[in-house]
Amino acid sequence: MPIEPVSLRTSDGLTLEAELSAPEDAWAAAVLAHPHPQFGGNMRSIVPGTLIEALPKAGVAALRFNFRGVEGSDGQYDEGLGERRDIVAAIDALSDIAEGLPLVLAGWSFGADTSLAVGDERVSGWAAIAPPLRAIKIEDMVAAHDPRPKLLIVPQHDQYRQPDSAAEVIADWVNSRIEVIAGADHFFVGRVDRVPPLVLGLLEKLRT
Length: 208
Description:
Blueprint: E1 4-9, E2 15-21, E3 28-33, H1 46-57, E4 60-65, H2 82-98, E5 103-108, H3 110-115, E6 125-129, E7 150-155, H4 163-169, E8 176-181, H5 195-207
Parallel strand pairs: 3-4, 3-5, 5-6, 6-7, 7-8
Antiparallel strand pairs: 1-2, 2-4
């Protein structure tokens, strides 16, 4: 599937660089949010890179983007606040393609925590991949008590939030579940291929 460059416009006037891969007969859509901008995260990091290759082949329109201040995107790092606007801008860019279709926010690490803080009504669910559950204040994660489904994909040996700890944090969350990827660490070395089927599984459930 071809990957096309696109530009996003945020509500506070920034232009962000992004890439879109959208099959003509897409049955679902996903916004892919990358890891922490201050630690080398960008839209070509391994998890969004893997998802933008795998999801469109399965009929899902996928959009990845660079948060504000990363590479060719305007602005500067905003501690997860402005970055929520960036995710909404990505939803805006998918709105024509995804109208009436399931749309998930699929973020990795910082991107996962930030996605959980976005409660846009156009979102059907969240796929939080290796969420540290600390990059954003837990009380700001509006998804926690939202009835829409949350899937937390947690590596067995995650260096920042292991499965047992994640389960404690989300014990009172609504419609939330954890899938553990055995043998994986936070960076999914040798295990990144396990991520797309789980995201697709969530979308399939939203489809019915």
